[in-house]
Design a protein that fits this description.
2 strands; 3 helices; 92 residues; mainly alpha
C-alpha cells in the first residue's frame, strides 16, 4: 500500500533498494501509528489511510535558520488529528 505503481527493474540492486525503502517506510508508519496515533481513531488504521490523512497534504513549508514552519490549508479536514500527532511526536 506504500507504492502506487510497479516499477520493477531488471537489475537486482534496484529491486533491493526499492524493497529496502519500502521496508523503512512501513516501519516509519508503524511507529507513527504506535507512538503518535495512540488513543485516536487512527491507531489501527492501514498504511494507506495514514498516508492519505496525515502525509499527503497540501502544506506550505517555510525553512528559516531557527525553525521549520508548516502551514496547512484552512480547509484541511484532519487538522486536529495532525496537530495531536505532531504534538505527541514533539514531546516524545
Amino acid at each position: 500500500m506504500l507504492f502506487a505503481d510497479r516499477t520493477s527493474s531488471h537489475m537486482f540492486r534496484a529491486n533491493q533498494l526499492r524493497l529496502w525503502l519500502s521496508s523503512v517506510a512501513y516501519l516509519f508508519l508503524c511507529e507513527l501509528r504506535r507512538v503518535a496515533l495512540a488513543g485516536t481513531d487512527h491507531d489501527h488504521a492501514q498504511c494507506s489511510t495514514i498516508r492519505l490523512h496525515l502525509l499527503k497534504t497540501a502544506a506550505s513549508v517555510l525553512v528559516s535558520t531557527r525553525r521549520i514552519l508548516v502551514r496547512l490549508p484552512h480547509s484541511f479536514p484532519f487538522w486536529d488529528l495532525w496537530k495531536s500527532a505532531f504534538s505527541t511526536l514533539s514531546t516524545a
